[in-house]
Write a structure and sequence with these properties.
The chain has 7 helices and no strands. By secondary structure, the chain is an all-alpha fold. The chain folds into 2 domains: 95 residues; 92 residues, Winged helix-like DNA-binding domain superfamily/Winged helix DNA-binding domain (Arc Repressor Mutant, subunit A), CATH 1.10.10. Belongs to the sigma-70 factor family. ECF subfamily. One of its GO terms (molecular function) is sigma factor activity. This is RNA polymerase subunit sigma-70. InterPro entries: RNA_pol_sigma-70-like, RNA_pol_sigma-70_dom, RNA_pol_sigma70_r4_t2, RNA_pol_sigma_r2, RNA_pol_sigma_r3/r4-like, WH-like_DNA-bd_sf.
Length: 204
Amino acid sequence: MDEMPKQTESAKLSTLKSTAEIRLKNFMHEITGRALVMMESATQHQHGIAMDLVQEAFISLHKSYADKSTEEWYPLFYTILNNKLQDWRRKEARRNQPFSFFKKVSLDDDDIEQLDIVDENTPNPYHFLDQAVTAEEIQDAIAQLPVRQQQAFMLRAWEGFDVQTTAQIMNCSEGSVKTHYHRAIQALRSTLAHMDPHSGESSS
């Protein structure tokens, strides 16, 4: 008499697991490309490292948050990915700096002077410049930014997160996000303006 409830419960768990795996597969298909662009920029085009960081983030997401909704996965995934990137950067800094294990390695520039700016609308990264530049040129320009500016820009412009969510993902203040984002936009406009053959033409 007790076998049927146990079998039913087992079937439910199996169905839930299968559903989560399908959702994760679809989620990965939708987000992997953008996540790789972000990590390749942050790791100076080290494709293998970028792939590893993204895959590790997906594994951690599935292991710890399989029961969450797909919408909840977006900020969770990028929070995990940001943490893994920071861990990798700290290991690289220690490896490249002799005796750095004697002191705390600080990689973030969130203690920069924060600008008193109103939140800027999140633009489409391919349109906000209003210039005839390619996706590859935009990605190359992004890769030249400091990592925190890269993150702020791509989380806001690529993923469409608001300031509060971006700050939670990056583990910094909203003021820092606004400052990083503002400086990223200014730097990208300056860099990509030189790539636009029409930028210096007169309107007359």
